[in-house]
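Methods, example record. To illustrate the input and output format used throughout this study, we show the complete record for Zinc-type alcohol dehydrogenase-like protein. The sequence lines were provided to the predictor; the line carrying structure tokens was produced by it.
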Amino acid sequence: AILIIGGAGGVASIAIQLVRALTDLTVIATASRPETRDWVMDLGAHHVIDHSKPLADEIKALGIGSPGFVFSTNGTADNLDAIVELIAPQGHFGLIDDPEALNVSAFKQKSVSTHWEFMFTRSMFETADMDEQGKLLNNVAELIDTGRIRTTLGEVMTPINAETLKEAHRKSEAGRAKGKIVLEGF
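The corresponding predicted structure is encoded as:
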């Protein structure tokens, strides 16, 4: 199983679909509001747990065991102790947010691997596998074209001005966004 934290956000919304399309893992996503719970279920999550409650207790209540994978898209610093508790031994922990400090030594006893994802690493450092970015995007395009995954567009805000930009940031920072927020039109 995989636990995806921040399930209704833009990155997590795609991650849920990719995991369902490309693996046989059971997908557990976090969401707390009725509309975000519905959103992640519609995207393919098998289970939804409430991130406003203790995550380890929520996982235990499912009765399916500890997830071998945890992907944290936000709130990693706040959830780290719970992640350490709930992840399976020899599990894999991936994250994309930027916690100020992250003490990964807590994972040592369970031999958990930690994986960062930053979409610009290959291009910034001209890594030997730079062409993989294009291959990944082509694979995603094929999944979209064949209907195996869909857009994660949650809201379009217009026009692009200081006020709509501030409102989009408020929604995103407050954890109130569902899917991706797009700003368009001047």
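Annotations derived from this record:
The chain has two domains: 2-117, 152-186.
The CA atoms of residues 13 and 91 lie 22 Å apart.
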